């Protein structure tokens, strides 16, 4: 394949400013990377969080950056040390935090951060999977230590993360409760949810008790009230809480910043102590090996993508407007090299 010198990309030049379309050089690969021609990329709320500057304390990007955090495409070039993949392989993945850039025609990515696409998915479907599935897998397995038969509460079951988290939890043998609007109740039940709480008429903390894991995706009072529904020894895992000292150290964010995290999260650690439960804020990390496990779930029919809308690259800003409506079930995907 003839690889061009430049490519189209969506970039962020300044926090709190709009994304812009740009023409930039096609990235060069190192010895452990592959170059992928991206066929489709999914949009995620974290993109908006980065744009707004709200993520700066925990994800200090050096601007400008190319936007986007998961993709599916075809390998067009491989580094000399790459052993797991070859040119023409169909792959999907989520790049390292500081190498975002899936809303572009090409991406250079380490072979450890990708996996072969599930054979039963097309590029659009596959692009919707990496970030939300890895987030769900790590929340439930790495930090939640989920075991078959345990009771799991997943906040916002019809969202991009929720729709996949429900399916992974069920594939692992859990009893699952979730929240959804009345119109999305049938969707989350079809994904395996055992108990659905209509958040317009009920409040989860009034309905649930003695759960093993609460997977919070909303933060605020929803996070605080998640502690109440757990049995002693349970686990609150959140995407929208506050990091603690350990998080800062683990992510090389410096001692001063880590101390500030510890102070800011003290009320959450107090709740964890009060209810005798474990609390963890996390940001998912790329993992081709975990994604390969998720591929098996998909090929076995245990997990399926849930896609709300698909846009062309020319419609990418409209796609982000749709994402920000916050009422879309499943994922929003943009086609790129088609």
C-alpha geometry: globular
Structural class: alpha/beta
The proportion of residues in beta strands is 25-35%
Terminal residue distance = 15 Å
Q: What is the average per-residue confidence, as pLDDT, rounded to a whole number?
A: 95
**Uncertain runs with pLDDT below 50, 5 residues or more?**
none
Describe what is shown at a glance:
By secondary structure, the protein is an alpha/beta fold. The chain has helices at residues 45-52, 123-127, 130-143, 160-171, 185-190, 204-207, 220-226, 245-250, 255-264, 266-275, 288-299, 316-323; strands at residues 6-12, 20-25, 33-43, 65-66, 70-78, 90-93, 106-110, 114-116, 151-154, 175-180, 195-198, 211-216, 230-238, 278-281, 307-312, 331-335. β12, α7 and β13 form a beta-alpha-beta unit.
Q: Key terms for this structure?
A:
12 helices; globular; 338 residues; alpha/beta; seven-stranded mixed sheet; six-stranded parallel sheet
Provide a descriptive summary of the structure in words.
With 338 residues, the chain is an alpha/beta fold. It is built from 12 helices and 16 strands. The strands form 3 sheets. Strands 3, 5, 6, 7, 8, 15 and 16 form a 7-stranded mixed sheet that branches. The chain has a 6-stranded parallel sheet with strand order 11-10-9-12-13-14, sandwiched between helices. It has a 3-stranded antiparallel sheet with strand order 2-1-4, with no helix packed on it. Strand 12, helix 7 and strand 13 form a beta-alpha-beta unit. Helix 3 crosses helix 4. It starts with 5 loop residues before the first strand and ends with a strand. The mean pLDDT is 95.
């Amino acid at each position: 394949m003839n690889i061009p010198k430049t490519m189209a990309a969506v970039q962020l030049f300044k926090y709190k400013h709009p994304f812009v379309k740009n023409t930039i050089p096609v990235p060069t690969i190192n010895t452990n990377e592959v170059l992928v021609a991206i066929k489709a990329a999914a949009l995620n709320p974290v993109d908006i969080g980065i744009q707004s500057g709200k993520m700066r304390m925990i994800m200090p990007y050096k601007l400008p950056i190319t936007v986007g955090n998961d993709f599916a495409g075809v390998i067009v070039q491989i580094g000399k040390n790459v052993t797991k993949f070859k040119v023409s392989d169909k792959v999907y993945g989520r790049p390292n935090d500081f190498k975002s850039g899936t809303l572009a025609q090409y991406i250079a990515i380490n072979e450890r951060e990708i996996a072969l696409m599930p054979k039963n998915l097309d590029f659009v479907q596959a692009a919707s999977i990496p970030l939300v599935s890895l987030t769900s897998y790590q929340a439930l397995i790495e930090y939640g230590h989920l075991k078959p038969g345990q009771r799991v509460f997943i906040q916002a079951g019809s969202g991009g993360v929720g729709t996949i988290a429900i399916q992974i939890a069920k594939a692992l043998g859990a009893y699952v409760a979730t929240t959804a609007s009345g119109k999305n109740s049938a969707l989350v039940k079809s994904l395996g949810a055992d108990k659905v709480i209509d958040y317009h008429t009920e409040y989860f903390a009034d309905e649930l008790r003695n759960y093993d894991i609460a997977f919070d995706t909303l933060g605020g009072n929803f996070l605080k009230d998640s502690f109440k529904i757990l049995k002693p020894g349970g686990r609150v895992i959140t995407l929208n809480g506050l990091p603690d000292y350990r998080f800062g150290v683990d992510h090389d964010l410096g001692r001063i910043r880590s101390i500030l995290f510890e102070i800011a999260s003290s009320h959450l650690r107090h709740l964890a102590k009060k209810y005798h439960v474990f609390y963890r804020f996390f940001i998912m990390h790329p993992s081709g090996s975990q994604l390969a496990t998720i591929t098996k779930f998909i090929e076995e029919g245990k997990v399926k993508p849930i896609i709300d809308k698909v846009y062309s690259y020319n419609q990418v800003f409209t796609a982000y407007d749709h994402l920000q409506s916050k009422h879309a079930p499943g994922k929003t995907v943009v086609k790129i090299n088609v």
